[in-house]
Amino acid sequence: MEGRVSEHSHGGMEALMVSKEANAAKGGRVSEDFRRQLTGYGLTTAHILYHLPDYQDILQTYVWQDYDLCPHFPALNKFLNFWLETLEGPLHSVTVAHAKLIRPAEIRALDGEFRLH
What we know:
This protein has about 120 residues and is α+β, with helices and mostly antiparallel strands. The protein has helices spanning about 20-25, 30-40, 75-85; strands at about 5-10, 15-20, 40-50, 60-70, 90-100. It has two domains: about 1-30, no CATH class; about 30-105, no CATH class.
């Protein structure tokens, strides 16, 4: 059975999504990360500096990475709240980088048109 592909418009951006039936027929699955990216999630990386619990003058680094929604970052905020409530190392600073991995294709203006018969 051939897979069916349908176009869906999401906020002006067109994304191709493979139907569940076609995907199941091929024995594969669409990853949850890919589904999240289609709904607006982007890869978020947080560089966290924190004080060591026993040596407050020494900073340690931790890198956190997950798919999250910009600009509110609910997953990152959940992790940071867990950190504040559970871990002993006080936070010094958090630097955040975010990138949408699926985005509209770039469009270039053409100077001419060529037709093939």
